[in-house]
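Show me any protein, fold above all:
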Amino acid sequence: MERIRIWILAIRPKTLPAALAPVIVGTSLAWADGVFSFFPALAAGLVALLLQVGANLANDYFDGINGIDTRFRLGPIRVTQSGLISPESVRRAMIGTLLTAAILGLYLVWVGRWPIALLGVAAMLSALAYSGGPYPLASHGLGDLFVFIFFGPVAVCGTYWVQAQTLNRLVLPASIAIGFLVTAILVVNNLRDIPTDRKTQKITLAVLLGRRNTIVFYRLLVGLAYPLLAVFWINGYGPWVLLPLLTLPLAMYWSGFVGRHADAALNRALAGTANLTLIFAVLFAIGLAAWV
């Protein structure tokens, strides 16, 4: 049981809402447009979860062996750096998880053809390049941009595409809203790690912006997700599509929290922002379903 608990720690379950939220939104749009397809939606969800777990393991492995994660880190324990799991075991788990995602992804390629093949290859490479390779994206201020792209437009539009083989013009604004919220999760993580990242010369966007500007950036990302709901209301989806506005008090709470707290206390905001993202996505899906 202890071994299982350690591996659960390694896959970082609190980050998994970031993988599910885009799939929920893409699928809800497909449902609203009458093009919902169960098996492609299910496969998209499983692949998204596996890619997230694979990226988490890659981050744990590469940051551990490269000395970016140290005993002074403020976030949750990293299994490679702490010695709880050997680097080789983490590396094998990372490869196995990404290979499983690729195998399941072949079904999505069969359904969605070459656009999904291109997106799948790009997603796999980004999962590795985020922390690994000769130019780790997360260590050169590019992590936020790639998270927005792959958890926003790529994930939402890709989920819709495998069900409809086309794109509704409103899929993009939906993907941008979810992309903003998922990126906010990363911003909290990097805000917490500014002191330790500076010491290890990991140049995240938060390190470049500094604490004050990173807090402003977080608040902008969270706040700008909500006006995009009006696009759907204006285009006739009905008032139920505004259901995610119920999460505004939660968004305001965490926006205030990140300004008042620092260091390990921001772990609460990290989990809270992930939950906010998932609840926002679920309420959005309910709103679209109610319109149908």
